[in-house]
Amino acid sequence: VLDPLAQRWNQNGKNVDAVICSSDYTAAGAIRAITDRKIKIPELISVVGYYNSDLSDYFCPRISSIDIDIDNFSNIIVNKILKLINDVNEPVEKINIPTKFVAKETT
């Protein structure tokens, strides 16, 4: 995943300035790959994870992350699935799950 990042780094004089990852675990891997290339976080590139898991606080540097209320998210999804099981005509709807950005040491 990060080899394309390394190839694009400073391509045409334009640096990638942020990587947004699908989880805090993916962000940890991105941080490792970026620091292995001697690219400074957050001075030259920011890294953001997702879920704001415990890992984001224990990793060094602490990972900035998108926080989601997983209990609320799970309840909404389970309720929607149950409605669909009980009524195949249940309308499709857009569901917005509240999130918040938690800035730590990687941004």
Give a verbal description of the structure.
The chain has about 110 residues and is α/β, with parallel strands linked by helices. About 40% of the residues lie in helices and about 15% in strands. It contains four helices and four strands; from the N terminus they run αβαβαβαβ. It has helices at about 1-10, 25-35, 55-60, 70-85; strands at about 20, 45-50, 65-70, 100. Strands 1-2-3-4 form a four-stranded mixed sheet. β1 (about 20), α2 and β2 (about 45-50) form a beta-alpha-beta unit. The chain is elongated and about 55 Å long. The protein starts with a helix and ends in a 5-residue tail after the last strand. About 20% of the residues are buried. The mean pLDDT is about 90.
